[in-house]
What we know:
Layout: E1 4-10, E2 15-23, E3 29-38, H1 40-43, H2 51-73, E4 82-88, H3 92-109, E5 113-117, H4 118-124, E6 136-141, E7 146-153, E8 156-162, H5 168-178, H6 185-193, H7 218-230, H8 236-265, E9 271-275, H9 282-295, E10 298-300, H10 312-323, H11 342-347
Parallel strand pairs: 1-4, 4-5, 6-9, 9-10
Antiparallel strand pairs: 1-2, 2-3, 6-7, 7-8
Helix pairs in contact: 2-3, 4-10, 5-6, 5-7, 5-8, 6-8, 7-8, 8-9
The structure holds 5'-O-[(R)-(carboxyoxy)(hydroxy)phosphoryl]adenosine (KG4) and zinc ion.
Amino acid sequence: MITHTVLGLETSCDETAASVVRLDADGEVTVLSSVIASQIDEHAPFGGVVPEIAARAHVESIDAIAGEAMRQAGVGYQDLTGVAATAGPGLVGGVMVGLSFGKAVSLARGLPLVAVNHLEGHAVSARLGAAVAYPFLLLLVSGGHCQLLEVEGVGACRRLGSTIDDAAGEAFDKIAKAMGLPYPGGPALEKLAEGGEAERFPLPRALLGRETMDFSFSGLKTAAARMADKIDEGDRRDLAASVQEAIARQLAERSDRAMAAYAERYPGERRFVVAGGVAANRHVRARLQAVAEKRGFSFTAPPLAYCTDNAAMIALAGAERLALGIHDGLDAVARPRWPLDQAAALSNPTHAPGRKGAKA
Ligand code: KG4
Ligand code: ZN
């Protein structure tokens, strides 16, 4: 195996990001640069991401962001062994911008292109900070996704459970919005919850009594929004803490069940990884770490900077594929929907499949 040095591009949501990552022959990972231009200010007035605004902002900044990533890494295009771009799932206008830019680099510089699944990027993100061997059990918790997966190797995932309504980050965002907190809601709600009393407000527990590894947050969202309307200013901290605990508890309960199932298949491979924006939440991390310790699993979360969307994870996912001799052609398409476990998504869709195929 040779050393791979890959330019990664991420444009699937509201962050324009570029990064250069090196994957050595012995598997060591070095992030040479990771540049992220957030569009939060442009979307904040609307309380959420506006796809057209996002796509336009990506077009305007991708060139400069990619150039900055190359400059900070101190490498030239002749030093790269490949270019990796998110090809989905995500807002398709934005995905097209990053993927087209990646194709242009590939064509102009004669570099292999890897069309990366954004979720595969999150799946490898913990490896940006620590060595984690395959296979491992993954809890992927972001603004768009909430699922438990057995990750057997590069591109080989088996889904154990998934949300039947909202993603965990979406629940954080929507409840935060109902409480009048700024977008994005997750970090704002975590801040408000500091020192709050988590047992103060009883909130519904989803799918209680069912032996499921699926998630549901819509009941919690409705209950919390209703309470937010009624409480005094002084009680907001306790409500935030109660909401955070309710989400963390559900994630911990399902992960506990998944660890038991996973350990039967891979008894000697007890590794648990949490990734995605919600993995940045300290209370969530602590809850999950406690479950992992109880079950005898190692616990790994990405460095905070690589929990939320970034291009380093896309570059690494690309490098891992290149190391196995896998790459894509210039005919790679942008895919708004692209489940990691295709088979599970088609045979057992937790979301209605929709016109464009299975979501997640
Ligand atoms: O992974 P990500 O950047 O984007 C997606 O691929 O979805 O995740 C963003 C999500 C948002 O819903 C955001 O509110 C949530 O992650 N998030 C958090 C925290 N930081 C980000 N949720 C709770 N606590 C946090 N500290
Ligand atoms: Zn993401």
